[in-house]
Amino acid sequence: MSGQVEECVDAYQNPKCPYVTQINQHSNDVAQIKTALVGEDLQSGLVAKVQRLETFMKVAVFIGGASFAAFIGLALKLIFGV
User: Fold this and answer.
1) How far apart are CA 53 and CA 36, in angstroms?
2) For 41, which of 21, 49, 70, 82 is 20 to 30 Å away at the CA?
3) 0.70 cut: is pTM over it?
């Protein structure tokens, strides 16, 4: 069978057509990855969790910075009586 392309008759019903099985498996894998990334409701996946974590970190850095500034101000007031 040199030079001829093997055809798979009724590929979607024929279990001897492995490429169709691979295509279907890849499609299922992509669907699972999409669900993991964006979630079933497009707001509960990893992307949303990363965004929430990012927001939390920004707030934590702001509060930490403000607390540090207040501590330095209090320390200067106690040390120098300013």
Assistant:
1) 17
2) 21
3) no
